[in-house]
Amino acid sequence: MTSESPQELVEWRHFLMADRPACMWRFELADQNARFLSGLDPRFFVHFVESQQLLLAGDQRQHAALAIRAAYGMALETFFALLFAALQAPDCPLGWILRYRPGDLSELVKRVGTGNVFPHRTRFGSGWRGVSDAIHLLKLPDADEEERLRRSSQTPWPD
Fold this sequence. Notes:
It is built from 8 helices and 2 strands. It has a domain at 6-101. It has helices spanning 6-9, 29-38, 44-53, 61-88, 93-99, 102-114, 127-135, 143-152; strands at 10-17, 20-27. The chain is 57% helix and 10% strand. The protein is mostly helical. The chain has a two-stranded antiparallel ribbon with strand order 1-2.
């Protein structure tokens, strides 16, 4: 039994979503953020597309194609939501994900693409190169592979 009051057990984090202030408070907030991040399955979208792939050759090809396009849109939204949660709320990505609005993502993508500043907690240069440098903090043993990875992530979509 702990002698701490409930107020002492509540954790809170403040952050911004685009330009809007927000705060999240919960019991065991750090643990909840860790569980949220470890529960993400990057293979989900691959699995989803693979499950639709066989249907592309049959009578349901239009439905399968639409499902794959919808999954692509969801994957992009997930990617940008996690990216901007990492930049604006690195200590509370769960809070950022629960509170953002879809318009926040398009606004932040535009700002990065045009070099405009937005509030963030991670220091980085302007544009997608700056975001890439902020996200790819680890050094890879192969310098050429590291540079290829950085270059490939400088724009949000391939040319």
